[in-house]
Predict the 3D structure of the following.
Amino acid sequence: MKFTMKCALACTTAMLGTAAAAETMTIGITQNNVGVDSYQTTYEQAFIAAAEANPNVEVVVLDAGGDVARQIAQMEDLIQQEVDAIIIWPTNGEAVIPAVRKAAQADIPVIVTNSNIAEQGFEFVASFSGPDNITQGSRSAEIMCDKFKDMGIESEARVVQISGQPGYTTAIERAKGFEDRLPEVCPDVTLVETQPGDWNREKSQQVMEAFLVKYDDIDGVYAGDDNMGVGALNAAKAAGRDGIIFVGATNFAVGYEAMAAGDYWGSIYQSPVDDAEAALKTAIDTLNGVDLPFLNYFDTPKITQDNMGEFTKPVF
Amino acid sequence: MTALSRQKIGGVLARQGILIAFVVFMVGFAMANQRFIAVDNVFGVIRSSAILGVMALGVTFVVIGGNLDLSVGSMMSFSTIVVLDLHDKVGPALAIPLMFAMTLALGAFIGFLVGYLKLNSLIVTLGMLSAIHGLTLTWSGGKNMDIADKEGTWFAIFGQSSALGIPMPILIFALLAVVLSVLLSKTPFGRKVYAVGGNGTAATFSGIPRARVVFMTYVLSAFCVATAGLMQASRSMGSQNTVGQGLELEVLAAVILGGASLLGGSGTVFKTVIGVLILGFIQNGLLLVGLEFYVQYVVTWVIIILAVWLDIAAKRGRLWSPIA
């Protein structure tokens, strides 16, 4: 008796689920840490707005608050709710793999957004949507090299790098893209030292202060994002060291303003709105059976003082 | 005669072990890279350490009083975000006192819970660490906060100006250190803090209002945090919500490194200052030496343990404990 009841309930839910899927698709998302920075806050707003604009899509929006355990629990909740697809912004590239596998086993396609999970989990992932951090790093190297060529110092320039938090995929990939590309385009430019700024403006300012003491001759600074780049710029300003070329990544409002003021040379334009919309589109396409590549990168163009007029100021 | 002077030297060593450790490291780093002791660099390091230092001054009182304060990091983020946001809304002259009032209210709330309700300070401040972080995020909506007109305001004076050739953050840190040192060592309030932290029951029987003293240490700590937030905001004229994240442990490390006992009842403002400077100069020294950064975490730990060991060895007059 009890068993029948349970089955009746479960079967009805399952049928309802299938019936609903025919008309509208339910997509669940578990995000990394909304509210911890403006990028993620804007991403969430854009994601909800994009979902509301599409009458065929229902979304369940969750946030893990940076907590791996909570994200795994949220994945299980979404599997229980029998959503049609799950989008995950991993809190940790390794630890979430078992939860992703569980969803794949329940025949729910998983789309990874923004930063990918570790490679051993790829077989459980339908597709990835996000920025290509290695390309971003190489583009930053090209921006810097082009500027050095304009200035005629491409044969002697010396560069320091302030990278993101050690151990983070985004930080590692951007640094790799930059370090690999720079010697290809500007073989005579020297990267003298790399130190982490932990995505933190104050920390980067301290790192840059030490660099300025240590090296009398610095021509360029590459920072893993604009927040750190502006920290480094503040240090150079305070020390009265003019003429240093600053190039960042993920153009922030502060970076955009510093560019407008002529203090900061360039960056990579990465819009959280594009990021969110690309993730939703990838999920919808997957459900509609569209043939997608495994890695879906949205474009993150170069932005410098020369072409910044083509871009609106970032909202974060 | 020789015995006497040896004893004297021993006494000085015992009291200032941490200072000796500090001098040893400074000489070591200076030998590795001469620029380490360049005036610009020394000023730069102290200026960077000043924010952490100001927070550590307040926490010194809390720790001597026998409690912990793990909320100072997120409280500093709160102060920074609030003062930056209010700066553009009501102007700096009003934003600063408003921010101080709100931060002091948070400190008073913690002080009430720990002092009057006698709740465990570790639990209370650990909870406040996330609660205040939530408050900050609610206030800012998760966005970075930036002053719109960075050139047309006098707000930069607390973090970026200098007087008599000394950067303002250093002056604030030094002034606060002197005032709080006098408060701790020369006033009845200071003696009560030691008494409450050393032996709370005995303090109560001596007629010391234990709850009020504990309450005051948290208000004092919040005042220091608000000052640090003001310096931080003024220095970078903009901030992330997580600017103070993790600082609570660095602050605690500096205070304990300075020799304050986690069990309360001992410690001085001067030694906390030395603890802060050791941490600041280690970070800077390792950068100047150019060690690869994954290794830096380990080396930082080794240096801190060496400092603690030197301090203890100086106190007992030998390197190894006489009791096995």
